[in-house]
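User: Before I run my own analysis I want an independent prediction to cross-check against. Here's the chain; please return only the structure tokens and, at the end, one sentence I can use as a sanity check.
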Amino acid sequence: MPDDDDLAELEQIRLELRDYRNEVDDPDLREAIHDWLDESHERVDADTIAEFMNGRLTQMLSDYEMFYSSEVDSPGEAFPDDCSDCRHYGSACPVLVGPVEPEFRERRLAEAETESQQRQVFQQQAIDTGCKRIPEFLEEWDEEHADFVRRGDDLLYRAQQDIQDPDDLRVDDGGVEV
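Assistant: Structure tokens:
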């Protein structure tokens, strides 16, 4: 089994909640954990930012050629309208079909040890190529992922509190449990 550091944040929460689910005494909390676990598999496209971003980029490449060729009547047909502000619009997308960037990205992602480092790979590629879509996809990830992870963290905290042995609780000088 991989170390905790190797696991995506979402997967780590999932594993811990699975472990705690049967130990929780509160039936409402147990049900909330069960619901969150179900939703985590149905709702989230990916466990890591790299999986999410690669999925979005792959989808864009499957929907559009991302380079001008004789297969299209005009250069803009090979690109989504959302790319129209890009300096590569109508010619060739270096992020997806260029000779260097896709391989460079995969190599850097393989070296990335954390989700933060994965994010930096995509951010740097957006800066290097002038890509407008990568920042939009990163923002989409943040909006969808952050709230869901926060809910999972809250459930994890509540589960730990529910199963904690009362004898393990200590009170500091201010009357606060530690």
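Sanity check: Residues 133-163 form the longest helix (31 residues).
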